[in-house]
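Notebook B, p. 112. Complex prediction, attempt 2.
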Amino acid sequence: MTSLSRSCRVALPLMFAALLVAGCAKETVRYGDAKGVETVTTGFGSTDLQVIAESMTRSLLGSAVVTNANRPVMTVQEVKNKTSEYIDTRAITDSIRTELQKSGRVRFAVDAVAMQQQVDELKRQQSELYEKDKTVPLGKMVGAAYRLEGNITSIVKQAGDTRDVWYKFNLQLWNIENGLMEWGDEKEIRKTATK
Amino acid sequence: MKHKAICWMLFLLVALSGCASKATPKPSGAASGQIAYGCPIGDKAVVSMERLVSAKVETAGRVKNVKVAEMRCSMQGDRLRIDFTLQNSANVVRRVAYRFDWFDRNGLKAWSDEVWKPVYLYEESRERLVSTAPDANAVDFLLVLVDEDRNRLKEDEKND
C-alpha cells in the first residue's frame, strides 16, 4: 500500500507533466507550393488533378476541332467516377474549363448544373421591377455545339506493405449535332506506397 | 563669318546628338527571332546542344545524375512544341519533376505557374517527353527541373 502510494506520488506528477507538454505541443503551419508534387498518400490528390487538367487542356487545344473552328461553343457534362474512392470530378472539369477559357480559343455554354441559376436570373429580369430596355431578352441563349464527357477509373492492389494505385482519366469531345466523337485523350497515373 | 559660325554650331549639334547613348532594350528570346534547334534563344550564342540546354534549362536546387540530354522545338499550329530527353546516369531509379515557365514576346510571364509534373526514370535510362505551349502568346520558355528524391538522397548521404 505504501509502495503503491509512493509510486503514485512519483508517477502522477510525471503523467500530468506529460499531458501538459502534449497539450501544449504546437502544430507548425507553413505555406507550401500549391503546384508542388504531393505524395502524402496514394489517394487521388492535388498533383493528380492538376496534371490531368493540364494534360487534357493542352491536348484539346491542339485538336483539329479547336484549331480549325472559330471559338467553338462547348459544354461540360459529367465525368463519371468509377474508382472506389471519393473524387470531386467537378473540380477536374472546372480546372479544364478554366484553362480552356483562358486560352481564348473556346467558349462555354451554360451546363446542366448551372442551368437552374441561369433560368432563375432570366426569369427574375422579366418582372415588372426592371426597366424593359435594361433587361436581357428571352430566347437568346446559345446552345453548345460540342459536349465534353469522360470518366476516371482506378485499379488498386495491395500486398503486404505495398499498395499500388493506377488511375486512368479519359476525356472525350462529342459533336452534339451528329453524335461523332471529335477528340479524345487519356492520362494514366501510377502511385506506389511502401511502408 | 556669321554663316561659318552657324555651320559649325549645327555640325556640333548633329555630332553630339549622334553620340548621345540611348539605352537600347535587350531583345528577349522570341522578339530577337534567333533560333537554335527550333527553340528561341534570344541573343545567346548557341552553337551546340549543350549550350542550348544550358540556356533553356534551370534546376530548382541540386538534381543529381539527371540532366536534359537533348531538346528540340517546332511549331504545332501557332503554338510552340518542345521535345526533350531526360537522362538518368545513376544506376538507381530516379524521380524528378519538371515544369515550363512561359514568356511572351516581351520576355514577360505569359501564363500562370504550371504544375510540377513527376517523372519516373529507370536506372541508366532516357525518357523522351513532349510539352506544348499553353497559347500562341507563350513564345519563349524555360524548363525547370526539381529533384523529387532529394529527401531520400539527403538521408542516404547522412547514413554514408
